[in-house]
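Hi R.,

Here's the chain you asked about this morning:
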Amino acid sequence: MSALPKFKFEPENTFSTACVSYQLTDLTEIYQPNVNVCVVNRTFDQEINHFVKALFAAQLHVSVVESLNVETFDFAKLLPQAKQLRGYAEFHQDIEHLVTVFAELFELQTVGLRLQLLKNAMCPKFHVDHVPCRLVCTYGGLGTEWLNDCYVDRRKLGTGSNGLSDDKSGLICADLDVINTMPAGADWLAQRFKLARQ
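And here is the predicted structure, written out as C-alpha cells:
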C-alpha cells in the first residue's frame, strides 16, 4: 500500500532508526522524527496460514493492483479465483484490516493496494521508494530486506553502483549481516527515505 498524505516528509541529516514491535498500534511510531521504519511482528491465524500454503500449492496467478476507496471496496472479492480455498475469508479480512489501519494512520480515503505472488525478488537491489510511505505485509516466504541508514553509502544507489551488485558496489558500509529481513507475518511501514529491497 502506498499513501499520498496531506503532509510532506523531509529527509533528516541524522541517521534514522527502526521501531520493531509486536503491536500494530506501534505503527504510529512512524511519526517520530528519528524513525522511518516500523516492523510489527504478528502471528497469523491458523486459517490464514492454511490459505497461504494452499494458494502457493495451487499456483494460481495472483496479481492485484487497485486504487481503492477504503469505505466502499469489497475485500471479499479481492481474489475470486481463490475463494474456494480454506481460510479465504480470514485472509481478505486481514488485508481489509491492514488497509483500514494504514488509511486511518494517514487520514486517507483512497489507498493503492498491490497483492502479488512473487517467484523472485520484486526489487533485487536496495533502493529508495518514491512514495511518502509504504506498508508491506509478507504472508509467506522471504520478506522485505532493509538497511539501517548508518550502514549505507547513498552515493552508490542506482547508477552510482556502476552496475555492481549491492554487496560489491560499496553501498553497504559493513558486513552483510547488517541486512535486516522482515519475517513472514510481519508488517513493514517505511517512509520514502529508507533503503529497501523486496
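One quick note: Confidence is low (pLDDT under 50) at residues 4-12.

Cheers,
M.
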